[in-house]
Amino acid sequence: MRTLIFRTVAPYLSTLMIVFSIFVLLRGHNEPGGGFIGGLIAASALAIYGIASGVAPVRRAIYFHPMNIAAFGVVLGAVAGVVSIFVGVPFMTGLWIYPVIFGVEVPLSTVLFFDIGVYFAVVGTIGSIALALEERDEI
Amino acid sequence: MTELGPILEASLTFAFVVLSLALLLCVYRVIKGPTLPDRVVALDMLVAVAIGLIAAIGIYTGFTLYVDIAIALALVGFLATVAFARFILVNAERGASQPNGTASREQTAVEERAS
User: Fold this and answer.
1) Which residues of chain B have a Cβ shorter than 8 Å from any chain A Cβ?
2) What is the ipTM of this complex?
3) SS in 3 state form for A7-63?
């Protein structure tokens, strides 16, 4: 859309939305949130940026094709499940490690990587649909 | 529910009453609104009032989680308004390019405003 105010604000707004989506994604294990809703917020950020300044800048900004991002997310989710083979427990069992980084205990798990996979799958799918719909009538 | 002081409790009751009235007025404008832009602005206002209501409920119940919900609604509700604005723009341009097309009453109203 040819509106100066919206076009100026849109990059900052989409940046804010993507930061908030990552916050929702990382909080998701113990509190409401998670990969799916985080992915939806990130896809909304892509949609707003696409409406403001056209689809081509968005495709240039995310660098990969949205479907590739979705496929990467599905593969990441599957790999997070396969890790449990090496420990000898059933598929997709949550495994936790507690490394101490700079004196702070950081709980990491395969569940987190599965959630990140869901995030990428949702960003890729919904972003692909939104960008395809926006491409149809560019103003 | 946490313990609230008398001032805070009175303010919360006042806020709930005012916000509920605002919601009802917005719904009235959405139903009644003669043109599509009126309805879009009313929907945007509805989202804004809902954000305020969610924040008031957050103070009433003491769950800080409601603030995050309000932030998410504020960020995503803006997308709906922008998408509606774009829809109106595209429809107006289509109606202008084909004057004998199937432009509805609302679209012609938009064009009259634009001209």
Assistant:
1) 65, 68, 71-72, 75-76, 78-79, 82-83, 85-86, 89-90, 93
2) 0.73
3) HHHHHHHHHHHHHHHHHHHHHCCCCCCCHHHHHHHHHHHHHHHHHHHCHHHHHHHHC
